[in-house]
């Protein structure tokens, strides 16, 4: 950004059955002076999410609450929020999460970007009240993220549970999204963020990262965020295939997308095998596996890894229950704290 460019931010929040947390999320966005609009889309909730959201209004006229009668998924909800909003900058906030004070001031201090993201602190729900006093004050250390680094950063590995860089929540320039006709893929219920950012990077987006921490992601011990349907995995690897088919890319970018596509497809094959076993029996599942020699390693390797999972220690900062109340972990490692003045 330059000094002459507008800094008005729209915060979009897709919410389903988030009555317990939506008020905190909205309050954290209203507290940011750069926020001109907050658009909450209640995605077919069966609780009083919409009523709680409206009750969080501070009277400044910045809050809009829209409702879907039926659940359509976070991608559809976010697309609707973007269509309703007008601000030139768009930020995504999950309904369970919140911004730390001064988040947008830190992001907007940086120049020359189309997408810009900061560090995420993962916090157990019990530790939210004291989180701001405990977060590390990290130096920004800005750097650009290219398509290869982004895609490879979203390939999870055994022993590192769900530490993907796709968890980053960038501030996005609406003009870039509009110029390239980019919106969330509404067929996806898994990886819709990854897909949007990958398509933007494939079209030349300047994606900057700073290590300063401005986003709090709340970890719940009973969270269902890690659950997904088998078909969602298939649609995600098909989204990689679509990027490869539709976008001119260099050989390194193509190789990275193929690695991610294979990674997700392997997960799909394992889940599909287990679904067949549960619904039609072991013989049917084995018949499927033997007819797919390219999937054998993924299926039987995945079964072995799952059976021995208890032997490994997970080292990820990502959203699993953290242990002690008030515990904090960060998505971006290796950022030394600023020296105290």
Automatic annotation (TrEMBL):
It comes from the Bacteria. Coiled coil: none annotated. One of its GO terms (molecular function) is glycosyltransferase activity. Its EC number is 2.4.-.-. Signal peptide: none annotated. Residues 10-144 form the Glycosyltransferase 2-like domain. InterPro entries: Glyco_trans_2-like, Glycosyltransf_2, Nucleotide-diphossugar_trans. Keywords: Glycosyltransferase, Transferase. PANTHER family: GLYCOSYLTRANSFERASE, GLYCOSYLTRANSFERASE TAGX-RELATED. This is Succinoglycan biosynthesis protein ExoU. It comes from Sinorhizobium kostiense.
